[in-house]
Amino acid sequence: MLAAAEAGSIRLCVSSAILAEVADVLQRKKFGWSATDAKEAIAWIAQIADNVEPIELVDLVKDDPSDNRILECAVYGRSTT
Hints:
The protein has helices at 2-7, 16-26, 35-48, 68-76, and strands at residues 13-14, 50-51. The chain is built from four helices and two strands. The protein is globular, with a radius of gyration of 13 Å.
């Protein structure tokens, strides 16, 4: 998906909240990325994506509230599929 976004085949939207969450997850034991590698990945994603900052908060996903950030980004970025 990231390659398709970089090529311009798809539109990728992210927010600062999503980028922060991805950076955090990449550095967890499960993935074990260094802070430097995570920072570089986040910079690349931010460069190829449309960065949006949702103004309305969503609270639909009760089991994992951080997933609401994805929904907010989709709504604010006017995702169609």
